[in-house]
Structures are given as structure tokens and as C-alpha cells.
Design a protein that fits this description.
The protein has one domain: Alkaline Phosphatase, subunit A, CATH 3.40.720. 49% of the residues are buried. The strands form 3 sheets. A 10-stranded mixed β-sheet has the order 7-6-5-4-8-1-9-10-2-11, sandwiched between helices. The protein is α/β, with parallel strands linked by helices. It is globular and about 60 Å long. The structure holds calcium ion (CA).
Length: 466
């Protein structure tokens, strides 16, 4: 190759600038923070020691909270599983795209799932240069177009339904029996050898180790401590003093999950990644106290209700390299805010339709005050709904006629209905709800019970000749 003596110096210059440019982009890529989002399932507000729990050891969650920010008014966008996960993945309220029911498990249904019009947070993180993983419970559609590998996740290990047995799978499992379905790893079915909370953590630890040199986005959704109540004997023995056998097993499940979360954090520590990794933890909804013996502490109600017990959950953020430890934050924040924070930290492409608030500026002193003017909930196209704005909470619940209004800063247990004595606040919150609700659409698929009844009727209608 003949190099023109006049052009040659320019080429050297050009090459060195290109080299510096690519070095910069490489360095930039490496300084993007890793994101680890850990979700518990059906864990109560009062089931972490730092949230007032007195009978379960949660040393790792307490350390995580102490290393960063513990939110006392952290909320899920829905009082049960599937819709809150739809909002997490879409980065906006699930009601915007008609997803406010728990989805049925049917691997042949190509319609029911997180709509393909919703580009997931994971897909956006991929575009920003992240390697992405979903591990654990999915619950956003059981057929292949909706499974995590099709929705922005490079790595997927878990189960597609709304829950799972903790010790076994049945490789011949039938429709309706998704709790026994094989686990899958990137679409390949797998058995289960050991306790699922441990096995899922093995997947998370492996993913972190394999991707230690790249920015990664890990969504680790444990099914613990959702039913069925099953725990290793060694953990149950630690709680043999708890007389209520349900609570004993529940405590063992929470303790086991806490240890496994500790193992995830230790992996980050061991790989020297902790200071460049932001860790989120929350429960997907409040505890169903009767079903799994969870405890929502001082809150009224539980899973499936828009009272605080259904939606206010343990909620924490830790990032030792960036966020000061030992912070308590009482401002209302929501699950969707965590995904918005991830998107902005990762430099992912944003769209006007996305919702939630980047919380980081509020945690490092760049901004002050409340991140959200108001937060909203709606079930079943409005049989139940709620608004939280500042200390005020308005709600309409199926179990009561009329609208209720509480000052949840003074009255966390929602015992003193102020609707008749505070018309100004009442009117303001009703207006906020109506403005928010005007942008929602009705649910586009039936709930799982109704769906299975419809299927049953359909099968009866086509019974074979005898
Ligand atoms: Ca749940």
C-alpha cells in the first residue's frame, strides 16, 4: 500500500482520533452502572426486620437497606402479581394498555400477554448496550411470543406462570398445572434439583460472573414467599419456636430468600462490582396474610385490595458508590420509578409515553421534595381505585360504599375516614384520579378464573360422539 506522504500524517491523526473515540466509548460503556432488580412475591410490609418484623431474620435485606435508602412509602402499581409486572416491563402504568388482571396460564394462547406494542425496559436497556437477564417468575404470558427471550432478555431462566412448586417439576405437566411446569433456560426445559429459591440464585450468580466485564441488567424475580408454603427443613428448624405452622414455614421461606439475596450481593462484592451496581429490592404486592401468613404490619388490608396493605411494600435502593448509606425516605414512590431510574442511568432511549420518575437525583441531593405529585391504582376497570398525593389517600373499595379519604402520614392504618370533613382535599384527589383515568383503557383479557371457565364451557360444547 502506497501512502501519500502528504496524506499520511492526516491518516495518523485520523487513526489516533478514532482510537481515542473508541477508547472513550469503551470506557463509557464500562462505567455504566449495572442494575440488579430483585423482586419478592407476596411479602408483607412488616416482614423485614428494618420494617418492624420481630420474628424473622432478614439480615441481608437489612444490610441492603442500611447501605442505601429505605423507603417507608414504597408502592407497587397493583395489589397483585401480573399487572404490576406488566407495568415494570412496559415502564408505564399497566392500565394504559389494558393489563389489570392476573393472566391465565395457557401456552397455546397467542393473544394474552404483555402486548407487543410495549417495548420492554429490557429491550431498551439492550439498545443502550446492556446484557439483560430475567430469572424466576415471569407471569406475562405463557406462549412463546411473550416469553422473556422474545421480550428483550438475552438470558432467561425460570418459569412462565404465576408461581411454582419449590422442590419439584413434572415434565408431563398439563394445562392449569403450571406450578409443576419444567423450568426453562432460554427456552429449553429443565428439571429442578434442590430448592427453587437457591436454584434461581445460582442462575443469577452465574449470569453476573459471566457478564462481569459488561454492563448488565438483571431482573431477579423470586416466587418466594408466595404459596405453596414450602421451605427446606434446615430453615424450618430455625423457627420451630413459632407455633403457627404456616407462619413458621413462611418465616423459613423469607429467611432462605434473604440468605440468597445475600449471596447475590456477595457475588457483586467478590467481583469488585458493588460500587458500580445499583440494587433495587421490593415486594410485588402486599402480603395475603391469611393465605401465606405474611404480615403487613400496621397497614390495613392486604393483597388484592387498594388499602395500604395491598400496595405498600418493603422497598429499598442501594448503590454504595453513589448513594449515601442509612437514609430513610418517606416520600411516596412506585415500582415504575425504579425502571425509569434504570432507563435513565443506563442512557436507554426514552419515549414520551413512558412514566415514572428517575429517583436518583432525589437520593444524591440534586433534587429535593417529593418525586411524584400523585400515585394511582385501579382494579377491574374501577371496582376499586386509589390515589396518594402527599399525606392524602383517596380510595374506593368493593367492601365499602362511598369514597374514603385518609391522611396516611398520621393514620397509616386507614382508620379515620375524613371524606366528610375535608371536601377540598377530597375534590382535589378525585380530580387527579379522573385526569389520570381518562388516559386508561379497559382490560383486554379476562381474569384467570373467568378464562378457565370459558375454556371449560368451550370443551364441553365440542364433546365427542359417544
Ligand atoms: Ca404477588
Amino acid at each position: 500500500m502506497n501512502l501519500n506522504p502528504i496524506l499520511y500524517p492526516m491518516n495518523t491523526k485520523l487513526l489516533s482520533s478514532l482510537f481515542i473515540l473508541s477508547l472513550c466509548s469503551l470506557l463509557h460503556a464500562q462505567t455504566k452502572p449495572n442494575i440488579v432488580f430483585i423482586l419478592a412475591d407476596d411479602m408483607g410490609y412488616g416482614d423485614v426486620a428494618s420494617y418492624g418484623c420481630r420474628d424473622i431474620e432478614t439480615a441481608n435485606l437489612d444490610l441492603l437497606a442500611a447501605s442505601g435508602v429505605r423507603f417507608t412509602s414504597g408502592y407497587s402499581s397493583h395489589p397483585y402479581c401480573s399487572p404490576m409486572r406488566a407495568a415494570l416491563m412496559a415502564g408505564r402504568y399497566q392500565h394504559r394498555f389494558g393489563y389489570e388482571r392476573n393472566i391465565a396460564f395457557d401456552q397455546h394462547n397467542m393473544v394474552m400477554g404483555l402486548p407487543e406494542t410495549e417495548k420492554t425496559v429490557a429491550a431498551r436497556m439492550q439498545e443502550a448496550g446492556y446484557v439483560t437477564a430475567a430469572i424466576g417468575k415471569w407471569h406475562l404470558g405463557a406462549s412463546t411470543p411473550f416469553q422473556p427471550n422474545s421480550r428483550g432478555f438475552d438470558f432467561w431462566y425460570g418459569f412462565r406462570g404465576g408461581g411454582h412448586q419449590y422442590f419439584k417439576v413434572d415434565l408431563n405437566t398439563k394445562l392449569h398445572e403450571n406450578y409443576y411446569a419444567p423450568l426453562e433456560r432460554n427456552g429449553e426445559p429443565e428439571g429442578l434439583h434442590g430448592y427453587i429459591t437457591t436454584t434461581l440464585t445460582d442462575g443469577a450468580v452465574g449470569f453476573i460472573k459471566d457478564n462481569r466485564d459488561k454492563p448488565f441488567f438483571l431482573y431477579l424475580a423470586y416466587n418466594a414467599p408466595h404459596g405453596p408454603l414450602q421451605a427446606p427443613e434446615s430453615y424450618k428448624q430455625k423457627y420451630s419456636h413459632i407455633k403457627d405452622t404456616k407462619r413458621r414455614t413462611y418465616a423459613a421461606m423469607v429467611h432462605a430468600m434473604d440468605d440468597e439475596i445475600g449471596r447475590v450481593v456477595k457475588t457483586l462484592d467478590d467481583l469488585n462490582l458493588r460500587e458500580n451496581t445499583i440494587v433495587f429490592f421490593m415486594s410485588d404486592n402486599g402480603g395475603p396474610e391469611h393465605a401465606n401468613a405474611s404480615d403487613n404490619g400496621p397497614l390495613r388490608g392486604g393483597k388484592g385490595e387498594v388499602y395500604e396493605g395491598g400496595i405498600r411494600v418493603p422497598f429499598m435502593i442501594s448503590w454504595p458508590g453513589k448513594i449515601k448509606p442509612d437514609q430513610t425516605n418517606d416520600h411516596p414512590v412506585m415500582s415504575i420509578d425504579l425502571m425509569r431510574t434504570a432507563l435513565e442511568l443506563g442512557g436507554a432511549p426514552l419515549e414520551a409515553k413512558l412514566e415514572g420518575v428517575n429517583l436518583l437525583p432525589y437520593l444524591i441531593g440534586e433534587k429535593s421534595g417529593a418525586p411524584n405529585e400523585a400515585l394511582f391504582w385501579r382494579m377491574e376497570n374501577g371496582t376499586d381505585y386509589a390515589v396518594r398525593s402527599g399525606p392524602w389517600k383517596l380510595l374506593k373499595a368493593r367492601d365499602q360504599s362511598g369514597i374514603q379519604l385518609y391522611n396516611v402520614e398520621n393514620d397509616i392504618g386507614e382508620t379515620n375516614n375524613l371524606a366528610s370533613t375535608h371536601p377540598t382535599e377530597l375534590g382535589r384527589l378525585i380530580q387527579l384520579y379522573e385526569d389520570w383515568n381518562a388516559k386508561n383503557i379497559p382490560p383486554f383479557f379476562p381474569g384467570y378464573r373467568e378464562y378457565h371457565e370459558m375454556l371449560g364451557e368451550f370443551y364441553e360444547s365440542i364433546s365427542a360422539p359417544k
